[in-house]
Amino acid sequence: MLSQTMDRNTKQQHWLTKLILITLALILILLLSTQVFAKSVTVKIDHQSVEMGDIISVVIKTDFQTFETPDFSGLKDQFDILGTQRSSQIEIINGNYQSYSRWDLRLTPKQIGDLVIPPLTIGGVMSEPHIIKVTENKMVPGVEKGSSFLESSINLTSPYVQQEVLFTLRFYHLGQFINGNIRPPTFHQAITENIRNQFHYQKNVNGRLYDVYEWTWAFYPQKSGPMVIPPQSFNGRIQYRGQLKAVKDQTQSIELKVLPKPKSYPTNSAWLPAKEVTLKDDLQTSTPVRVGDSITRTLSLKAEGLLASQLPEFQFKDQAGFHVYPDKATNNNQKTEQGMLSQKLQKIAIVPTRAGHVTLPAITVSWWNTQTNQLETQTLAEKTIRVLPAVNKQQNPFDTMTPEPVTEPKPMMSSSDNTGVWQSAAGLFAVLWILSSGLAIHFYRKRKITAIATVDSESDKNSQAWPDNHPALEKLCQGNKNGVKDARMLYPAILAWQQRYPEKENETFKTHLQALKAHLYHQADLPPDTLSALCDDIARLSAQQPKSSKKTGKHLDPLYPNEVDA
User: Fold this and answer.
1) What is the pLDDT of residues 111-134, one digit of tens each?
2) What is the C-alpha radius of gyration for the chain, rounded to an integer number of angstroms?
3) What is the Cα–Cα distance from 433 to 411, expressed in whole angstroms?
4) Does residue 202 contact residue 259 with C-beta atoms inside 8 Å?
């Protein structure tokens, strides 16, 4: 018996040991796989649009330490490698150890076109490919340049009005740059944005290696016709061949012809001359959507080659079945080598006002493709949303403060039941008391209703003539008078009253209700006393009787038939 127990314990220990080893192995595999996936190799290029002769700086960086040397032979087909430099770095931040490896390369293109820096593999991790656009050298070959010179250029000579034009200014020098200054150019009747400021690189010009400082501006002509960019100048000092030399260089003026907006462009659309335009939206709805819910729709209009201020504002109007409350649009601009990328972002709150299917109309933006010289459009198709009734609408959902039920008075019972005479007398007294009370209440109500029917419904003294089927609205308004202001509770009650009596409204009521809607769904400030004003409006409108009411329904005889209405 003892040996069987020992065998069983031994088997359990072996099984437990295997389980621990398997668990440790899985943890080790998980840690190793996590480290592999965490590794990355990044490649950064100082500029992606170059000319023949330009020198490109490329930085290759790993987020792990390695002694491996990357294979750069794939670069030699399209680039000359002028030099490479390797460095390593170790950082300890808050006790976390991190090491890096880095290679700095200097390349110059061998040919014109779209050249590719292929993926590089380091430590089993591969980088992303990068494309460099190479154009011809605008320098006149064979023309000898001095120790310094200044040049300017534009990317378009015949742009459309308000189209983006890039103006580039470059200062070339040999030797060592000491100091200098340049004034921003003047673009008459144009909006200007600085794109790149004093970007430094090197360029081979006729066999001589120049240091280059480059500035780029984007300007948007606001008037069609001829336009002249005046000459630019640079004043400074360089040290060349051991001597300090003052330099003063100047460019030639540049002329361009600004074209007007094409006649084929729609007259009712904002003029958008761009390289690319995209229109997208995001609709955030609850599930399901009910009357009174707020639906958020976010519109995004992006353009390449325009400022965000040039993008049109979206126009929204209330439609059948819903109200719209647009937020103020936000503008975003991003500067790139190729120009400006812009975005206009706008959020709209959409509030359904009736159950059924609500259709959001299509949105179309026209724009002029400056690459193809053609009219194009971006369209968001119409969207249909199914709207359900408000919660518990069949049970008067806005009656959140249900009045306590009225209990009928119970007849007083005699505490003594010794004799049948007293019991009979008490029962008879109770019956007589109930009959007399019922008759009194009947005549009192008839007198009260008749009196109310003869009072002028427009009188300010009786402005609180509330409809009997909306006690919650009356209680909410009474609470508002007592200082309990609850806009979110009051709004659905008002909406229910408005749906029941659509003919009872005026401009004052509409103005106050619009202010309440803007507060609830657009986060607008609620003017003081708006809730009180709405309650007063509803009370006055409820007291008004339709003109046809005197001809239909039961007519109450006047309380004093011999008197004549004043």
Assistant:
1) 999 999 999 998 889 899 999 999
2) 42
3) 9
4) no
